[in-house]
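Appendix C: a fully annotated inverse folding record. The material below is reproduced so that readers can follow the format used throughout the book. The structure is listed first as tokens, followed by the designed sequence.
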């Protein structure tokens, strides 16, 4: 099956490249005849909708994306107020299945509550719902746009906390070749390369990245045992992106990507592997009737070995979790009355997968149980949205209808003799839900914009939440096949103010509520279950400032959020508690100096407030403050020297606290290397 999928990926790539090659020949022939075509492709989607100025939106430019202390995509995103992963660890030292991302401190259980798109395509894992961060090479991106708050546009059913849109760079940014090679003080390496070629009016980009290293000890010195292991990592990614014009107003975009990520956590033998093969086709039309149509397919797999923290032997081998995701969308922007920007469309997503694992005795090593779990989830959405410009006012409104279906769900466990131990066969179910968003922006003066918005959103439980139990010794977390869809309701008010040309300020106050919030709820000592809480209420303030003065720049953001669980019934004891892994305060500030072309010196201060590991607020994670540094100095031609430093003062970053058993995040790490033409 995997080979068939990979052949399909290659076929899609060749399909995309064929028009490129043919168009390149036509281009050369036209030049011979004295005619030079004026066809221009962008490799991007349709222009941003006016609604982006109504909602709380932040854009990260390429310069900020490729000049972080760690070189990781999550590091760049952490400069956006309110962004957080489920845990504080980065994508080198965490379990991949814990890489859920969210916004506005809405909490979670390692599943993403924010929708992440790469060139318009959702990239979350079909089974777990996490974001494969190592499959995203920051150096291949042109920009990142983060919109906070519930969404109702394309793929809006997953945009519970907001949307993160990653846009790839083309040859005009990358040049014919771009690459870098770095090594750090633990002899770990990072290498990346991108070859970009213009073919007539189209182009193709082949890129790859490879990160590997022995890692660091996540276990503190006083808790290490002979079986303690470094958080070793070895990940690679290869991608092909091709763009070709089909006419003077229509372009074809294709992407294929293959990635593999292997990590070790905490103990020798506690290895995890995640891999994926993704492909997508997109057709964008920029004529009078604008349209954006895409289709995508994902093949993913995950494996994980759990080692006993008392006897240090294998107790669980989650050897195989194959899953498939597929979907697509069509969005049309018809020409209507002047001042109106109307978007009408539909989208579809389907995820299916199956867990395959074996449990072993910690005392004898003998097989105890074989377990299987899985199912199929799907979502069909219909949406319409209109942005209306009335002089200095922009009014926007959108309506979305989603039909969700959960089917073929099961969990089955048999003992070593194939005798049934337990079985759950979940009934099929489906539902229709309406969501909406509306808002307005007022251009009050030449330097002041005021905005207000309200919205709703929803999220379908993942296959992981519904059917897969797991153990982080000694805590067992049960799945729950009866989980209901999460639903968000919220509103916000904000302003953008430019008191002088060199200074831009933004401020947003929000009130969001997630009904039926899915959380890991403690039901007995060392026993939890995924349950729908009545709600999580979050009120807060997000602020940002950008200052430009000659060669200096200063960018800062902060988020203060008061998030609480609203509990009743079985969850009454949680009423008023802060959701797990949710800080009240988070902020970052970056100072940069660019004395001349090719030079950049930057320092980033980041602070994350205290948070709790568990829903009972018994295990506290202390605040963490770090400083990262980045220096790029031109050498000759397109070559530059790169120096980076993570966590300069080597502060302890506590990423997990389970009854006093501690995990730590990245220590001080210094990198040196060479960059070519980036």
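Designed amino acids, in order:
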């Amino acid at each position: 099956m995997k080979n068939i999928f990979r052949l399909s990926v290659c076929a899609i790539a060749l399909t995309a490249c064929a028009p490129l090659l043919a168009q390149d020949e036509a281009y050369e022939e036209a030049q011979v005849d004295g005619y030079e075509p004026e066809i221009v492709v962008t490799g991007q989607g349709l222009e941003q909708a006016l609604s982006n100025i109504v909602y709380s939106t932040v854009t990260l430019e390429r310069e900020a994306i490729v000049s972080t202390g760690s070189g990781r995509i999550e590091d760049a995103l952490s400069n956006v107020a309110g962004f957080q992963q489920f845990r504080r660890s980065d994508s080198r030292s965490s379990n991949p299945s814990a890489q859920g991302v969210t916004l506005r401190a809405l909490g979670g259980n390692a599943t993403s509550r924010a929708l992440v798109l790469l060139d318009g395509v959702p990239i979350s894992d079909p089974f777990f719902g996490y974001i494969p961060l190592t499959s995203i090479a920051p150096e291949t991106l042109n920009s990142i746009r983060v919109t906070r708050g519930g969404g109702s546009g394309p793929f809006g059913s997953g945009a519970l906390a907001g949307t993160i849109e990653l846009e790839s760079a083309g040859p005009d940014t990358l040049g014919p070749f771009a690459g870098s090679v770095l090594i750090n003080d633990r002899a770990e390496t990072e290498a990346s390369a991108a070859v970009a070629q213009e073919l007539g009016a189209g182009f193709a980009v082949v890129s790859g990245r490879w990160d590997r290293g022995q890692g660091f000890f996540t276990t503190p010195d006083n808790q290490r045992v002979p079986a303690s292991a470094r958080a070793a990592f070895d990940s690679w990614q290869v991608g092909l992106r091709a763009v070709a014009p089909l006419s003077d107003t229509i372009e074809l975009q294709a992407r294929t990507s293959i990635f593999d990520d292997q990590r070790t956590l905490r103990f020798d033998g506690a290895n995890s592997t995640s891999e994926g093969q993704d492909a997508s086709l997109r057709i964008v039309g920029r004529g009078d009737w604008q349209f954006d149509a895409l289709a995508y397919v994902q093949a993913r797999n995950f494996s994980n070995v759990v080692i006993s923290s008392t006897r240090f032997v294998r107790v669980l081998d989650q050897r195989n979790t194959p899953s498939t995701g597929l979907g697509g969308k069509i969005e049309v922007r018809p020409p209507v009355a002047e001042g109106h920007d109307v978007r009408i469309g539909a989208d579809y997503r389907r995820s299916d997968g199956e867990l395959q694992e074996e449990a072993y005795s910690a005392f004898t090593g003998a097989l105890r149980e074989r377990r299987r779990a899985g199912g199929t989830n799907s979502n069909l959405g219909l949406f319409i949205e209109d942005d209306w410009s009335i002089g200095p006012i922009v009014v926007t409104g959108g309506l979305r209808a989603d039909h969700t279906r959960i089917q073929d769900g099961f969990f089955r466990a048999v003992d070593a003799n194939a005798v049934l131990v337990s079985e759950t066969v979940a009934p099929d179910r489906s539902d229709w839900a309406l969501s909406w968003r509306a808002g307005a922006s007022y251009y009050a003066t030449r330097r002041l914009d005021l905005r207000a918005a309200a919205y709703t959103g929803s999220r379908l439980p993942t296959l992981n939440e519904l059917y897969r139990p797991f153990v982080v010794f000694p805590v067992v977390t049960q799945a729950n096949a009866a989980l209901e869809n999460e639903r968000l309701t919220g509103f916000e008010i904000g302003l953008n103010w430019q008191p002088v040309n060199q200074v831009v300020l933004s401020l947003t106050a929000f009130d969001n509520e997630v009904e039926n919030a899915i959380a890991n709820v403690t039901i007995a000592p060392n026993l939890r279950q995924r349950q729908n809480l009545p709600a999580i209420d979050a009120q807060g303030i997000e602020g940002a400032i950008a200052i430009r003065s000659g060669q200096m720049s200063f960018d800062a953001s902060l988020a203060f959020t008061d998030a609480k669980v609203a509990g009743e019934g079985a969850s009454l004891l949680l009423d008023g508690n802060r959701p797990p892994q949710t800080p009240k305060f988070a902020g970052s500030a970056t100072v940069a100096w660019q004395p001349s072309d090719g030079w950049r010196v930057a320092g980033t201060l980041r602070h994350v407030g205290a948070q709790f590991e568990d829903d009972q607020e018994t295990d506290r994670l202390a605040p963490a403050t770090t400083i990262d540094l980045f220096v790029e100095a031109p050498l000759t031609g397109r070559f530059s020297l790169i120096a980076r430093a993570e966590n300069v003062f080597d502060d302890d970053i506590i990423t997990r606290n389970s009854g006093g058993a501690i995990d730590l995040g990245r220590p001080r790490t210094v990198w040196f290397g060479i960059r070519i033409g980036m």
